[in-house]
Every structure is written in C-alpha cells, then in structure tokens.
Amino acid sequence: MALEIVEGKEVRILFDGAKCIHSRNCVLSRPDVFVPNVQGTWIHPDRASAAEVAELAHECPSGAIRYENLSGAPAESAPRVNTVHVRENGPYAFHAELEIQGAQPRFRATLCRCGASANKPYCDGSHTQAGFSATGEPATHPSEALAVRAGPLEVVPTPNGPLQVKGPLEIVSGCGRTLDRTTQTWLCRCGQSANKPYCDGSHAKHGFVAAGGAPADS
Fold first, then answer.
1. Rounded Cα gap, residues 98 and 121, in angstroms
2. What is the model's pTM?
3. What is the pLDDT of residues 61-77, one digit of tens each?
4. Which residues contact 98 (CB under 8 A, 6 or more apart)?
5. Sign of the CA dihedral running 12, 124, 190, 103
6. Domains of the chain and any CATH numbers
C-alpha cells in the first residue's frame, strides 16, 4: 500500500497504510480529519490545527500516521523512556527511537507476536483472525532501574526466530505496569512461547517461518 501524503496549510500528514493496525484512535478522536468509510479523499489536515494533528499522530500506536509542520515548528521527538507495551491478545507496541531492519527511523511501531502477520515484522491485524490468545498482563520480573532510559533502540527480527531488541527498554503491560527493564532481550514472534512475551525456543519446534525464510534449526 502506497504512502499517502496530504498537505494542508499548516501541516503535512503522511499515512502509511501498510503499518496501520486499525486501532481507530484517529477516526474516533477526529472523524472530521480522518473520515471513515468514504470514497476519495478521507484525510483533511486543515480541519484541525497543527498541534491537534500532532496529538493525533502521537496517539497512533503503529506509527502509521506521521506529520511534518510546514511552519518550521519542531516535529515529533524521541520519548524520554523507551517502552514496549504488550497488548492483550495482540502485538507489541513500541515507543522509542526505533531502528528496524534498516528502515527509516521512527518513534512508534506495532510488531507481530502472533506469528500470523503477512507483513512481518509488523502487525497487520492477523492475530484476530488467527484467534491468538496471550495475556497483556504477564508476571513482573524483578529488575533494577536503568541508568539510561532513552536513545536508539535496535530491533532485529532474527531469521525465523524472535525479535532481538538491543538498547535500553522498559517492557510494560497493557495497563502500564512495568514488567521488566533490560538493555537486551529476545521477544517471541512465533506466538508459541510458553514464556511470553519472551522467546523460549518454540519457534524451532513449531517450524516458524518468517517471510522469505525456511524453518528454523534451533
């Protein structure tokens, strides 16, 4: 799906449909700006101020909505604390200065943890059709406060295996409870781990295959 770019008087909206998980924050918060179920133009930047458009973008968990201020005002900045929220029966929602597979750096992304997405490593909503079931409130791991809580966060989808995450990260439950603090971890993306959200090697046992790969050996 091509990137949609719609320019208004104060702000330019960039919508990446391939990243959208249909959380519907935009169409529920400002149905005048993001108009659902219409033919033709459905994004209208001039129906809101630049600040309001920025707020809508910041509430988009997948990062599908981005913006560029035409007045020279500051754009979105990296968060002070890198986090990943574990969504109930759904994806990982990252908020950090993200580096994913050499893609353009971004601050928000939802990554698949059910194993069924056709757009790996990104979530495409397949967890619903697949009947994926995994709590967003796993047990807390005792952990020490991180000396550095922000900065670049590299996410590496290993071949037919977990997401390797390198950099300061706080793993957070769906309701905001801190589950763990780490500078390197491996998160399950095959949907089969008995220790979710962490990888336990189940991808090899179940023959998990990511796009373009073959079943893992270990």
1. 13
2. 0.90
3. 999 999 999 988 888 99
4. 105, 106, 107, 108, 109, 153, 155
5. negative
6. 3-69 (3.30.70.20), 83-205 (3.40.5.90)
